[in-house]
Amino acid sequence: MRKAALHNLGCKVNAYETEAMGQLLKEAGYEIVPFEEKADVYVINTCSVTNIADRKSRQMLHRARKRNPDAVVVAAGCYVQVAADSLQKDGAADILIGNNRKKDLAVILEEYFAGRRKTRRAVETAGQAVGGELPGTPAAAPNAQSCVIDIAKTREYEALSVSATAEHTRAFIKIQDGCNQFCSYCIIPYARGRVRSRGAAEILEEARTLTAAGYREIVVTGIHISSYGTDMPEGERVELIGLLEMLDRVDGLWRLRLGSLEPRIVTEDFVRRIAALRTICPHFHLSLQSGCDATLKRMNRHYTAAEYAAGCALLRKAFDRPAITTDVITGFPGETEEEFEQTVSFLRQIGLYELHVFPYSRREGTRAAAMPDQVEEAVKKERSARLLALNREASSAYRRSFLGEEKEVLMEEKVTADGAEYLAGYTREYVKAAVPWDGRKQGRILRGRLTEMINEELALLTNVSDVADPV
Ligand code: SF4
Questions:
Q1: Number of domains the chain is built from
Q2: Model-level pTM greater than 0.85?
Q3: Which of 285, 356, 383, 462 has the largest CB neighbor count within 10 A?
């Protein structure tokens, strides 16, 4: 039996696809081993969100080659999609698999092992070979098998699915791929192509399989989930909110959590319908990036700070203290001290639960990389530190606001705090809470009172009782 090892880089969508590829290989008869072990096949699902992600992707390919020089090294995913040319020259991979070809991994490997090494471009939907138009789309190479299509032209959702994940209580379901937004700093539309939505029937089937397998929480994920359904023909279109309403009716599903949302999707109608869902977690990641309209414009984000604030206000009206989390980029090209100050005061005014702070990282091939007035690294660092301090303050206040209240916690993992072992999980608001370690309670839903903070990030859950399982 051949051994295969997989390594994932990047986002939750990539993680989902890495799980799916692992399952495809298992079904094809491979034994899946940890990446640190000697394997016959190494699959690295690469990321290209920043120049650093590119570098890490290359490093992992070289590491795999070093671990077993006789192994077949497969590079898959976003970095392959945008930089196949340089990967060909690099020689670190034997097979290059771009986006929308990951579903064919087992077949591609079979062909490879059968000795049919021929360089080719992958064939678009109707069996028609296409050339690349994107920066870095691959050229033919004599000794690496290249399976990379012109992702900008495909309208087909790549059929990948998972029936189990590395986590035991929470599963991610991918509902769409691609993005049509073209934020000026982001390479994703080039790496992932246009919006392609997965059929609602397949999503529901996967949700039922995962729920029946014991997963209590499903996280709806994708590259730009707010665009779900926009590519479907009129008359057959299912919007994100409609899909969530269908998922809400899946028997045995306990919690539905959402991945990153576009602020503009948070309308009165959306909030009214989402607040009526039985399973929805009041945890909304609304991507902000900047609280300054001029910066948002240069970023090519399609909302203003005032529109963002209006979305938060709607959510706060419909839910009791919803967890609103966000991403902020510091030091975007041209960001002046005044612009940054606008972001700081906007964040203070909005009062979010958690900020994910990213110093702007230049990504070649994007418009922002070529913009004038690039901000010095030291300034980005200093601005990030200020936002991180703000984040600590805001997160701490948010968590503590629940002390003394009863909450339901899905128990997930063993953690150690101050030398003691605990079983920890999350409330619906994504506040981490724990009971003294008891392995029998893992995967169960407990109700109890949050009495004190064990440390800054972990609350103690006391007087616990089991919540009736919906399955
Ligand atoms: S919305 Fe913007 S940042 Fe997000 S994937 Fe699309 S282009 Fe990139």
A1: 3
A2: yes
A3: 383
